[in-house]
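Bumping my old thread because nobody answered last time. Still need a sequence for this structure:
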């Protein structure tokens, strides 16, 4: 029997980001991705803040920046827009790093590989 994935793993934002990371050129334009992320962030702010903060932690988004943003949101953005921008910026950093750094596993003994 196939196990059903939790909603946070099947959400369209995750699919868009995974497609982008996988090298699919321009899965969506940046404004669309930001809008999808913003929608999900707002949904989590309304329903499950702890899950949102867990995601931010796992994405390695600076806690100090998030706290400052929550204490003093930018005048021209909602909190969800500002958080979406932080998330997207971090995802782009991660994608850039993955493309630039080549990991070679040749020196890992077979018994240490999973």
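Sorry it took so long. Here it is:
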């Amino acid at each position: 029997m196939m196990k059903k994935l939790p909603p946070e793993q099947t959400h369209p934002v995750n699919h868009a980001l995974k497609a982008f990371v996988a090298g699919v050129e321009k899965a969506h334009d940046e404004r669309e991705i930001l809008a999808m992320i913003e929608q999900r962030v707002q949904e989590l702010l309304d329903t499950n803040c702890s899950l949102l903060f867990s995601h931010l932690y796992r994405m390695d988004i600076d806690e100090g920046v998030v706290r400052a943003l929550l204490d003093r949101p930018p005048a021209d953005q909602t909190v969800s827009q500002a958080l979406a921008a932080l998330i997207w910026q971090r995802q782009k950093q991660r994608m850039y790093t993955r493309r630039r750094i080549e990991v070679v596993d040749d020196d890992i003994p077979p018994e240490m590989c999973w």
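Helices lie at 7-10, 12-21, 30-47, 49-58, 63-71, 79-100. Let me know if any region looks off to you.
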